[in-house]
Design the sequence.
């Protein structure tokens, strides 16, 4: 018997589209509607079991052997409690409930906790701490925007429904749809997003900072020496400025092209300042294209729980925040970390090789629904239910809108949820008494 | 926890029951104040101590997306005030944008046991409740932003009062909110186009109605639904020189409105200090607190809170998006803005109130003037935390209210503009009895929290005991910052300023029974959700999400 579940939130990217309809058959996902290609593959991935561990594993000698959750949790807590300075890393693709428990775990251990944003939009957050963040929910853009600009990102591939559901194509209260809006794409690469742009601007790689500041200067009426800035002609820049000033409601979305290229938070700051300045003459907002579906949620949770958005060090008992010192890559490469818990992320694949190498050699616990290079390297592996498909929770969309995640089917073989696993460690540790 | 307890021999202040500093016993059983307890009850001798109901903060911004935006933007504030985890408490951080634990512990140490989060965008209500549930010890309630909501403006322009009322009831339940909040009616919607409205008769762009119509329409819905508290209003033109005339005009709108509810007021005007300015620019910026105070005193259906200024850093944050933009243009400090689709917006800008700056000093004088000129049953103590200063500075404001000498000493340190203020001429000094009114009795009544703010049998056993002398202000601020004893539902949560327990507080929200109009309203709502980016089914914050849900069901009018 097939059944249809409406209004399912897709647990993949920061768009967190909540209009997915899932057809279930025999308690398994049969097909999905409204989902993009990424969403399709996410829901399909869950159906297969060959890429999943179905039982906790603990290293004994040279091999890892299947054990109960109880034994794996005990071993995990032993490792964490024995460490001088543990790092709890990841947290992007899981629920706020797991993140909340994780922060208490870090506090109780005197550990550090960091999420994947420290190697992603962390610099954007640092930029925000210097300048502020003039933003809006995606619906404000859908209803009002007549100019939408993407800078250093390719939404068609990374956030496939961003343009179609939220910004350019949809009908809004004050806009009929695509014909009412101008799309501008700024990217050194030609992409499928740039191909449909009304104006495509192709700068040289690594010149965003000067282009953004040239736009700021021109906005204030200053003359900028030509003929080009960062590979973009003065005429094009002038055209952009005119378009921005004339906008009734403009929105600028930026990706890792700004936050992870040379200049990092300074690039983002320049973009934030441009939008701030524009508001003296027009109405503009800016937004970061957050990647994983709940990476924005970690920053929210971490801020209300500790005061700081990421890279928090509890080694002194109170929260300290100093990215560059207390951020995951720096802590590990400086040799400060002697045990690591990774959850809902794959740092061995994604972090710099030197750091990944260090993770491979230290006592490591990995919590993840799937087999990854990180789970392969870990001493304790605790597989978990896929949050948002096999377990409920809360996640924050890239624009800060909290959305409910549903449990639409059972996890295989009674796998626990991420939050249950983290709570399991927390409760065991509390039983041992705080250090 | 002992089930029975006697707070014996304390000097009790309970203005709701006319008790002004009488030495008496307060009996407690199972979390409630009772007439008497059995012989074997535990007795705490509080001779020489002052006993009063737990504090009830009527207006504070401590949770939700804009507060968190403030935390994220201001690590310099967060790191200014940190303390480590202890066996009983979590690590605490932050001063004007504290983390959830700092909020709970600081309020509790001050003897506060209930707070009202004053601005919740319904789309992000789930966020607010995640934070409210995490704040330890205190009971909580929240107010839902409705003054720039498209559907409300549409119903108003179509004259559909019936659907408006039904939608307000639905929205309160969806956001798990306790009351209606209006912020710069129409102005935040105009900010969607980079504009503002300039007064209660200005038309809201594209919606064809005025702020006056929004205020009156929501007030009518509020009273039609018999909601426990009145509409809370952040009036138009906040922070602008000369805005007092708008404030007077706004209060005039409700002159003839009445309520059946025991609270008495039909409108609570928030942070009045920010709305009581004269002059036509910053050069001749001045306080018009005396005129505004006279208007409040001569009306019988309005309450207000002060929004009194504390010198030093603050973090301004409000759903008044255009105001924050203007402030940023003035001070050039960092600025966060957050427009929320089809509903509201928000802005956050750090601010420094300087003792040497004439504008800051006039604002400081204005807040105190209002508190000293308006009857204490009608004005309540707030700093509009963290806009005019941190709530942790309430003891300092209480000290200023209770001591003319302290005010005079303070004014010696300020920009001389204060010497010309009305404040300089005011001799009035608050008594502890008055202080209990502006921090407990009055706020609980205005909120319709009839079990709070007093110590008669039947009240919640939320009690604060301070080590201070009623007739002297010596050591007052320290005593008020660090209570001798605080009980929450009869449990000792604070002793000598230390947290002893951190129970989970209630979240109050209003659950109005649906009427025959519900189906028609929901049909319209389905249509309207085309303008949202989340599905109607995912919009409401679920009750399971509240750690300790406490719904209030209003009586249905016949």
Sequence:
């Amino acid at each position: 018997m097939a059944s249809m579940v409406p209004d399912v939130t897709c647990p993949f990217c920061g768009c967190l589209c909540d209009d997915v309809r899932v057809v279930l058959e025999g308690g398994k996902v049969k097909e999905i509607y409204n989902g993009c290609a990424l969403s399709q593959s996410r829901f399909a991935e869950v159906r297969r079991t060959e890429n999943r561990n179905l039982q906790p594993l603990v290293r004994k000698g040279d091999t890892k052997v299947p054990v109960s959750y109880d034994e794996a949790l005990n071993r995990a807590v032993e490792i964490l409690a024995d460490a001088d300075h543990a790092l709890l890393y990841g947290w992007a693709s899981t629920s706020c409930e797991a993140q909340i428990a994780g922060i208490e775990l870090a506090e109780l251990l005197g550990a550090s906790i960091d999420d994947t944003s420290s190697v992603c939009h962390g610099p954007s957050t640092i930029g925000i701490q210097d300048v502020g963040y003039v933003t809006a929910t995606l619906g404000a853009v859908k209803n009002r925007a007549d100019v939408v600009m993407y800078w250093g990102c390719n939404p068609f591939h990374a956030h496939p429904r961003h343009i179609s559901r939220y910004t350019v194509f949809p009908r809004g209260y004050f806009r009929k749809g695509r014909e009412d809006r101008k799309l501008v794409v700024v990217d050194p690469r030609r992409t499928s997003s740039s191909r449909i742009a009304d104006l495509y601007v192709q700068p040289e790689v690594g010149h965003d900072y000067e282009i953004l500041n040239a736009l700021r200067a021109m906005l204030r009426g200053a003359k900028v020496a030509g003929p080009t800035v960062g590979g973009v002609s003065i005429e094009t820049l002038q055209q952009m400025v005119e378009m921005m000033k004339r906008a009734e409601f403009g929105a600028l979305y930026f990706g890792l092209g700004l936050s992870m290229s040379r200049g990092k938070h300074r690039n983002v700051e320049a973009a934030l300042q441009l939008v701030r300045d524009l508001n003296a003459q027009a109405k503009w907002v800016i937004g970061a294209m957050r990647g994983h579906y709940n990476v924005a949620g970690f920053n929210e949770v971490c801020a209300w729980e500790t005061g700081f958005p990421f890279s928090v060090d509890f080694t002194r008992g109170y929260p300290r925040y100093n990215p560059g010192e207390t951020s995951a890559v720096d802590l590990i490469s400086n040799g400060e970390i002697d045990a690591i818990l990774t959850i809902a992320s794959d740092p061995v694949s994604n972090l710099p090789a030197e750091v990944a190498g260090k993770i491979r050699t230290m006592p490591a616990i990995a919590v993840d629904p799937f087999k990854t290079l990180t789970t392969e390297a870990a001493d304790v592996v605790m597989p978990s239910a896929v949050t948002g498909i096999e377990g409920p929770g809360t996640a924050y969309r890239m624009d800060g809108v909290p959305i409910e995640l549903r449990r639409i089917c059972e996890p295989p073989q009674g796998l626990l949820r991420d939050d249950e696993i983290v709570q399991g460690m927390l409760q065991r540790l509390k039983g041992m008494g705080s250090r | 926890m002992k089930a029975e307890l006697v707070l014996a021999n304390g000097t009790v202040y309970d203005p709701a029951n006319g008790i002004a500093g009488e030495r008496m016993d307060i009996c407690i059983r199972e979390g409630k104040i009772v007439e008497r307890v059995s012989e074997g009850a535990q007795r705490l001798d509080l001779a020489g101590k002052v006993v009063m109901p737990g504090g009830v903060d009527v207006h504070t911004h401590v949770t939700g997306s804009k507060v968190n935006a403030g935390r994220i933007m201001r690590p310099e504030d967060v790191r200014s005030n940190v303390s480590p985890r202890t066996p009983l408490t979590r690590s605490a951080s932050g001063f004007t944008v504290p983390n959830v634990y700092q909020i709970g512990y600081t309020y509790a140490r001050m003897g506060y046991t209930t707070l009202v989060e004053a601005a919740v965008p319904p789309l992000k209500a789930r966020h607010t409740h995640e934070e409210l549930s995490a704040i330890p010890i205190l009971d909580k309630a929240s107010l839902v932003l409705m003054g720039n909501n498209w559907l409300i403006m549409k119903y108003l322009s179509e004259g559909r009062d019936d659907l408006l009322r039904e939608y307000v009831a639905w929205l309160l339940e969806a956001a798990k909110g306790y009351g209606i909040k209006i912020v710069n009616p129409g102005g935040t919607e105009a900010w969607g186009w980079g504009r503002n409205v300039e007064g209660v008769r200005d038309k809201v762009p594209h919606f064809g109605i005025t702020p006056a119509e929004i205020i009156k329409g929501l007030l009518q819905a509020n009273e039609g639904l018999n909601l426990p508290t009145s509409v809370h209003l952040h009036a138009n033109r906040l922070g602008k020189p000369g805005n007092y005339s708008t404030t007077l005009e706004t209060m005039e709108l409700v002159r003839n409105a009445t309520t059946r509810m025991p609270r008495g007021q039909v409108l609570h005007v928030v942070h009045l200090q920010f709305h009581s300015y004269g002059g036509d620019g910053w050069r001749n910026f001045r306080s018009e607190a005396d005129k505004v105070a006279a208007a409040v005193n001569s009306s019988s259906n309005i309450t207000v809170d002060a929004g009194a200024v504390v010198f030093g850093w603050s973090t301004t944050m409000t759903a008044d998006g255009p105001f924050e933009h203007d402030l940023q243009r003035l001070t050039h400090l960092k600025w966060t803005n957050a427009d929320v689709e089809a509903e509201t917006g928000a802005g956050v800008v750090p601010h420094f109130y300087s003792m040497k700056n004439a504008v800051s000093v006039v604002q400081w004088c204005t807040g105190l003037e209002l508190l000293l000129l308006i009857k204490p049953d009608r004005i309540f103590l707030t700093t509009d935390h963290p806009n005019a200063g941190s709530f942790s500075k309430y003891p300092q404001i209480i000290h200023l209210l209770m001591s003319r000498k302290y005010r005079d000493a303070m004014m010696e340190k300020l920009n001389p503009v204060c010497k010309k203020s009305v404040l300089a001429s005011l001799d009035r000094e608050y008594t502890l009895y008055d202080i209990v009114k502006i921090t407990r009795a009055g706020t609980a009544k205005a909120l319709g929290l009839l079990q709070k703010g007093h110590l008669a049998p039947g009240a919640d056993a939320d009690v604060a005991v301070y080590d201070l002398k009623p007739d002297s202000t010596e050591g007052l601020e320290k005593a008020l910052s660090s209570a001798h004893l605080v009980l929450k539902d009869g449990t000792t949560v604070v002793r000598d300023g230390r947290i002893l327990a951190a129970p989970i507080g209630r979240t109050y929200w209003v659950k109005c029974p649906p009427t025959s109009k519900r189906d028609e309203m929901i049909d319209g709502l389905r249509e309207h959700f085309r303008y949202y980016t989340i599905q109607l089914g995912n919009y409401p914050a679920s009750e399971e999400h509240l750690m300790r849900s406490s719904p209030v069901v209003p009586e249905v009018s016949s």
Observations:
- The domain at 122-288 of chain A is CATH 3.40.228.10 (Dimethylsulfoxide Reductase; domain 2).
- Residues 219 and 242 of chain A are 8 Å apart (CA to CA).
- The longest strand of chain A covers residues 2-8.
